[in-house]
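pipeline: protein-struct stage 2 | run 1193 | Calcineurin-like phosphoesterase domain-containing protein
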Amino acid sequence: MVRVPAAVSVPATALARRCSVLGSRVRRTARRAPRVRPVAQELVQQPSPYTRALGLTAVVLLGAWLGLLIVGNVRVPVGPMNTTMTLRPSLTGGTKINVSPLGALELDSHVAPVRLDVNVDQLDPVRAQALVDHPERLSGLQDEVAHDVEHGTLDLAVRSCVAVVSGATALGLAVYRRPRRALAAGGLALTLLAASGATAFATWNPDSVLEPKFSGLLSSAPSLVGNARSIVSEFDVYQKELARLVTNVTKLYDVTSTLPAYEPDPSTIRVLHVSDIHLNPASWKIVASLVKQYDINVIVDSGDTMDHGTAAENGFLDPIADLGAPYVWVRGNHDSRLTQRHLEHLKNAHVLDDGRALTVAGLRFAGIGDPQFTPDRSTAPGGGAAEELAGARLASSLRDQRAAGTPVDIAVAHEPSAARLTDGEVPLVLAGHLHHEQTEVMKYGTRLRVEGSTGGSGLRAIEGTYPDPIEASVLYVDRDTRRLQAWDEIKLGGLGLTTAEVSRHLPKENHPGAPTSPPPTSPPPPLSSSPSGTTP
């Protein structure tokens, strides 16, 4: 008989218990062990860091924009006006003041990815009537408006912070469903807004209101910012400028449907500069309207009024006699000698050529006709020696006039290359030919103003994708010093368009606090009898 060892003779129930304990330990170990997933599956499910960063950036920007759109505006009573202030994403920054239904004013107040929109919603009848009943309150209106603007700007900053953080956080929570990621989106949005605010503060330009851009009906009412002299003497800081704008808008509303005329300074001569009409009959109606609206004293045409210079075109010039202001003209490369002779016998027209000077509307002009006539292809277009010679003759005439004690205030030539040779001989020289406006102060102090096409390039207006704009300028010249105070660049939509913009500009020497500009310095005399200067 075989005996089983005592160690082996274990009851069945004990053995089952030990197996159960061992199995539990194995299962716990298996649960603690990390799960190994295939490498391909890991790569598909985990996006790259760049993708995650790009997605987070998109969520932050979209959430911040939605937050500003929904709750990022404040309603602020500014004087007698009810306004709404809003921050909007923008690539260029700046400030836009919407004066419905009159139009808008745009100011280059700062460079940042946010733009300040100020909507003038309506005129409060109670507060406006109080000003009418108590005119003495107008004296304190500017301080009141400045305080309202400051309070509204602070309120807008706080509300914008809440708006962008809330918007980015809410969108982050909806997209990621993780509180930590949502809070990161909100923090990044706040950082972005703070950086934008710092950039706006660093680039803040309080003098931006000196050169506003008008659109809509406001383009015909530049008196909203006062005349040229009041701009120089009174406009110094941004808040005060906004206050004055609101004050003037109040007065504008009070005049029912009639826009106020420009209020000229008694010592200001208004010159309308036109050029390159190129047989566009609509130009005469525009010129006549500008003469009436701006109370123009004299019109200067820097040439290319015609297109081919034929006798059949001479009848096109007849409206000049009824424009309401003297018409000073120089010959362009599309104007023939036949055109010039017709104008010399036309009522109200004053032809400049060969450097001869004449006084019109209190200003002394001198000019020279373009030596080339390109429609018959007898000469090659462009600057060249002929233009240099014409510019040198004009400069010589200007020197002779100054020596005789009758200095010229404004010189006129069609080609900018000829006009450049008058540098140092005259304060201001006008030109055209390029079909786009530009301004520069040349080496010896003479300011060159090149006008765009007042005819919208004439028959060439529809050659491009979009019609060329109709451009003209109003120059404000002091009657005592004969110096340019300011100019308005007027741009109208071309053929089939109805847009209108007016941009006001001031010479640097007319900005508040700027030193007085010395008169132009004459260039050194030429070393030989050949024409001096260079062609651009």
